[in-house]
Amino acid sequence: MNPERTQTVCVFGATVVFALCDNDPWGATAGTQGGSVVRALLESGQYAIRAPTRNPNSTSAEALRKQGVEVVAADLNDEALTRSALTGSYAVFAVTNAW
Questions:
Q1: How far is residue 69 from each of residues 56, 78, 96, 98, measured CA to CA in Å?
Q2: Quick one: how far is CA 91 from the chain centroid?
Q3: What's the Cα-to-Cα distance from 19 to each of 7, 53, 55, 80, rounded to whole Å?
Q4: Against a cut of 0.70, is the pTM above it?
Q5: What does R_g of the chain's alpha carbons equal in angstroms?
Q6: In this structure, how many other beta carbons lie within 10 angstroms of the beta carbon of residue 75?
Q7: What is the spatial distance between Cα 9 and Cα 48, in angstroms, rounded to a whole number?
Q8: Residues 6+ apart with CB under 8 A from 58
C-alpha cells in the first residue's frame, strides 16, 4: 500500500475476477464489476484498496496482494467480521440484489 494513499476504498467482489479468468486477471471478459473497479482504482493511484473476501488465502486473493491490494477476511453473513473489514474505509463498492 502506498503511504501517500490515505483514503481506502473497500471493494466487495474483487477476488471473483481472478478466479474466473486466469489469462485475463482483470476480468475484462468475465464482466465482473468488482474487478473493473479495482483496476480503475489501481490505475488512478489515488486510493488504497481493500478487498474483503471469505477466503483471504486463495489464489485470487494472492494475485490481488501482488497488485498492492489489502486483502481481508469478511463474510456478509458475519456482521462483526464485515464491520471489521469496513473499519476506516472512505468508500465502499458493493453490488447487491434488488429485492
A1: 12, 22, 22, 28
A2: 12
A3: 27, 12, 12, 26
A4: yes
A5: 13
A6: 14
A7: 6
A8: 15, 19
> Is the Cβ–Cβ distance between 38 and 49 less than 8 Å?
yes
Cell output for 9: 476504498
CA atoms 54, 55, 59, 63: torsion sign: positive
CA–CA distance, 59 with 65 (Å, rounded to integer): 10
Would you state the cell numbers that stand for residue 13, as one nine-digit string?
Answer: 467482489
Query: Can you read off the three cell numbers belonging to residue 42?
Result: 489501481
pLDDT tens digits, 53-76? 888 998 888 888 998 999 999 988
To which residue does cell 463498492 refer?
93
How far apart are alpha carbons 43 and 76 in whole angstroms?
A: 28
